[in-house]
Write a structure and sequence with these properties.
With 105 residues, this protein is an alpha+beta fold. The chain is built from two helices and four strands.
């Protein structure tokens, strides 16, 4: 259950979730499986014309090292995504990290 179920019927239309779980003998194998599944999802979205962006997400109570969710840009909704200027980093606000680039003289 979501902590803040909002927007009534709109939420049912905009929110779709699919969890994936796997078993691996090593972290290296698990990382490879994760990358393969991410690539498969991106291929599906591209083929169907759905614009998405993979973002770093919270693993929740299941834990784990890696967790991503595919976010589709929308004018409504309550998620905030943090990105860098070059577009190589994207994370849910709950998982976003920052780097202090301020240089004092």
């Amino acid at each position: 259950d979501e902590n803040r179920p909002r927007f009534g019927l709109l939420r049912g239309r905009e929110f779709v979730m699919l969890d994936g779980y796997s078993f691996a003998a090593s972290q290296e194998q698990l990382d490879k499986q994760f990358d393969n599944e991410k690539a498969a999802y991106l291929k599906i979205f591209k083929r169907t014309g759905v614009e998405v962006r993979p973002v770093i997400a919270d693993s929740g109570t299941m834990g784990g090292k890696n967790s991503i969710e595919f976010q589709a840009p929308a004018a409504v909704g309550e998620d905030t995504i943090a990105t860098n200027a070059s577009g190589t980093y994207a994370a849910n606000l709950e998982m976003a990290v920052s780097v202090d680039t301020f240089k004092q003289e």
